[in-house]
Amino acid sequence: TLRIERQFDAPIEAVFKAWTRADQVVQWFAPSHEFTVAVPMMDVRVGGKYRLEMTNPAGETHTAIGEYLEVAEPDKLVFTWEWEGGDSGMLVTIDLAGQDGKTDLVLTHEKFPDAGSRDHHNEGWTGCLNCLADFLK
Question: Taking a C-beta distance cutoff of 8 angstroms, is the pair 116, 123 a contact?
């Protein structure tokens, strides 16, 4: 299991929208600003599906797909996570807590196939959350 905690200088409603609105997700959801992001599908409701396409500067696209299992605005999202053609069966939980215009985020990513996958995702999520912090400024 991977657990990452971050605080954002933005209200909880803004952070939740950044995770749940495709027009905002395309602006930050990648391991670095060098990637371009497309969100051809994002149906944020229990049972809804998403598709995130992250393209690196070399033109390689990495596609994450999954289903929303819990949507509790503005403080919780739970969704499955798999790489198209790769690792599958993983679970991501985003817990948010707002106070005084700031938001504490806890990202928990579970059910990795191995430690290498966990470590790779740690790098990716750390980059994503850095991009999210920049987006929320």
Answer: no
